[in-house]
Amino acid sequence: ILNVEQSPQSLHVQEGDSTNFTCSFPSSNFYALHWYRWETAKSPEALFVMTLNGDEKKKGRISATLNTKEGYSYLYIKGSQPEDSATYLCEGSSGSARQLTFGSGTQLTVLP
Amino acid sequence: NAGVTQTPKFRILKIGQSMTLQCTQDMNHNYMYWYRQDPGMGLKLIYYSVGAGITDKGEVPNGYNVSRSTTEDFPLRLELAAPSQTSVYFCASRVNEAFFGQGTRLTVV
To answer: CA A19, A67, B50: angle at the middle one, nearest 5?
Structure first.
């Protein structure tokens, strides 16, 4: 089982603040990293898939970076809005797409 | 555009009863997964399948069985329900990123 860790576990920010959180994973035999957004009472939805060291992906105010050599990925949200409130999951895979592990998520609450 | 469909959405079982959670996808994905989500926890992998006729255990397989007779369907079977199986269950399929069903909230009393 791949050890994927996310921090912080939860986060409260004010509307308009920018924020970021971390996903760490073993750097050896890295295959891919996925970020998902999971709203309460819904199912997770894919945000980004990242495979190459130095990858940077962006979708609106949300972006992510990947460092496979040191085994971490950052998710950034610029100018947080209440609708950004959700749990953000990362999922790591190594060796092959069969060996996938989710982190426990970062629960973001954006206060109006 | 159905994607991944799970049924039922909610179910209450008595201890010792059995049931099957249904999952079907119309995207022709080979990889399919069953996860459970316990309160305050992330997703734990129960079973997965890399194609029709092939299944394998995940992190928490005890108390569950699966089958994959077709590419589309990946049912999860609980034979003797226990209170520890109270959880929200998600089915997913993927090529790269995972597509999730809407979840099944199961309570065992």
So the answer is: 100
| Residue of chain A whose alpha carbon sits nearest to that of B103 | A43
Model confidence over B29-83: pLDDT tens digits? 999 999 999 877 789 999 999 999 999 999 899 999 999 999 999 999 999 999 9
What 3-state class would DSSP assign to A100?
strand
Residue A41 confidence (pLDDT) above 80: yes
Q: Which member of A1, A98, A103 has the closest CB to residue B42?
A: A103
Rounded Cα distance between B18 and A43, Å, is: 25
CA A104 to chain centre: 10
The letter for the amino acid at A79 is G
User: Is A89 in Cβ contact with B90 (below 8 Å)?
Assistant: no
CA distance B47 to B56: 6
User: Among residues A80, A82, A90, A79, which one has the least CA distance to residue A38?
Assistant: A90
**A11 touches A109 (CB < 8 A):** yes
Whether A25 has a pLDDT exceeding 70, the answer reads: yes
Please count the other Cβ atoms lying within 10 Å of the Cβ belonging to residue B71.
19
User: Is B96 within 8 Å of A89 when comparing Cβ atoms?
Assistant: no
Question: Is A43 in contact with B103 (Cβ distance < 8 A)?
Answer: yes
Give strand ranges (E) for B1-109: 4-7, 10-13, 19-25, 31-37, 43-51, 54-57, 64-66, 76-78, 87-94, 98-100, 104-108
